[in-house]
């Protein structure tokens, strides 16, 4: 006599509750119940308030700093493993600590690999994430990784803008592959910014490779942190004769003086996803939801269907 397989369950880390609620709604089931107990020194303990035994569990949470967000994901994965969940998928709309994907100088960690190992040790049997800072981070995992591209969200929006003389731009050399993929999809020109840094988040010099005169430029990047690179690139392109400059960035970290820089810059608008909740509102920042993308992929994973179309630029 066959035993029926329990229905899938979706749980949210606190930092991603709004997005997780939208994903669960699109998936077609309610969010699972979780309560978190907090000690006076800040230590916390999440607890599933319903059985997950034998279930396929999806735990949704971006792991942007502070480190409590990553720790909460690890604790929830461990709790699901110890509660005998059948499959445990860590859904990380934003995979934090990804900029430390290699040793760029002596005696530094490779944090992205460390995080990958911690997620697996905690109990993740599958990872779903979007627009990793570096594609090779997938190789840090021994478990399956579904690496989704936000281009499936951004490209339809970009086509609706119907911009004449469109040019796609990369704010640095590292993003040139992404910029070329967008330019191919949009059948447009591409330009690249070359920058030199004094230190992290501080640019000492920037040059433009390509012509933007009379063009409507769209800068494409995987994340925007302090917005220093984006705003400097936008201002440089307007000086070189661009008609307008917009930016598409998947993950809106927007730390420090980012919002102030964006408001004062020549950027017409910054288009982002809701992989990370905004800390404040801005007239220049437009948010497109990634909830439907994740819900569709999670449904396909649950029913063992192909998701290759979500990998296409």
From TrEMBL:
- Identify a single GO molecular function assigned to this protein: ATP binding
Q: What is this protein called?
A: ribose-phosphate diphosphokinase
Indicate yes or no for the key word Ribonucleoprotein. Answer: no
Q: What GO terms in the biological process aspect are recorded for it? A: 5-phosphoribose 1-diphosphate biosynthetic process; purine nucleotide biosynthetic process; ribonucleoside monophosphate biosynthetic process
The question of whether Magnesium is a record keyword is answered with yes
Keywords in UniProt for this one? ATP-binding, Cytoplasm, Kinase, Magnesium, Metal-binding, Nucleotide biosynthesis, Nucleotide-binding, Transferase
Specify the superkingdom.
Bacteria
Give a Gene Ontology cellular component term annotated to this protein: ribose phosphate diphosphokinase complex
Question: What species is given as this protein's source?
Answer: Marixanthomonas spongiae
Q: Which PANTHER family match?
A: RIBOSE-PHOSPHATE DIPHOSPHOKINASE FAMILY MEMBER (PTHR10210), RIBOSE-PHOSPHATE PYROPHOSPHOKINASE 1, CHLOROPLASTIC (PTHR10210:SF41)
EC code: 2.7.6.1
**Which NCBIfam families does the UniProt entry name for this protein?**
PRK01259.1, ribP_PPkin
**Domain Ribose-phosphate pyrophosphokinase N-terminal positions:** 9-123
Record field: catalytic activity: D-ribose 5-phosphate + ATP = 5-phospho-alpha-D-ribose 1-diphosphate + AMP + H(+)
């Amino acid at each position: 006599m066959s035993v029926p397989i329990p229905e899938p369950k979706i749980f949210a880390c606190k930092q991603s509750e709004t997005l997780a609620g939208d994903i669960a709604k699109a998936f077609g089931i309610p969010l699972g119940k979780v309560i978190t107990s907090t000690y006076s020194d800040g230590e916390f303990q999440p607890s599933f308030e319903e059985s997950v035994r034998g279930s396929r569990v999806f735990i949704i949470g971006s792991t942007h700093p502070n480190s409590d967000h990553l720790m909460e994901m690890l604790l929830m994965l461990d709790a699901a493993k110890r509660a005998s969940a059948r499959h445990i998928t860590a859904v990380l709309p934003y995979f934090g600590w990804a900029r430390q994907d290699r040793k760029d100088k002596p005696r530094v960690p490779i944090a992205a690999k460390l995080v990958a190992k911690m997620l697996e040790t905690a109990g993740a049997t599958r990872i779903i994430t979007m627009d990793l800072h570096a594609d090779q981070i997938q190789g840090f995992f021994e478990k399956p990784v579904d690496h989704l591209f936000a281009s499936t969200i951004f490209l339809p929006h970009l086509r609706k803008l119907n911009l004449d003389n469109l040019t796609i731009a990369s704010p640095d050399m590292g993003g040139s592959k992404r910029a070329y993929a967008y330019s191919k999809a949009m059948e447009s020109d591409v330009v690249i910014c070359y920058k030199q840094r004094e230190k992290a988040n501080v640019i000492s010099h920037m040059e433009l490779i390509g012509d933007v005169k009379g063009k409507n430029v769209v800068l494409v990047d995987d994340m925007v942190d302090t917005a220093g690179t984006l705003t400097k690139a936008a201002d440089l392109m307007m000086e070189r004769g661009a008609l307008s400059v917009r930016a598409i960035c998947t993950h809106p970290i927007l730390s420090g003086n980012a919002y102030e820089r964006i408001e004062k810059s020549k950027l017409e608008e910054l288009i982002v996803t809701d992989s990370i909740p905004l800390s404040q509102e801005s007239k220049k920042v437009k948010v497109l939801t990634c909830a439907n993308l994740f819900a569709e992929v999670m449904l396909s994973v649950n029913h063992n269907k192909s998701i290759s179309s979500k990998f296409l630029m």
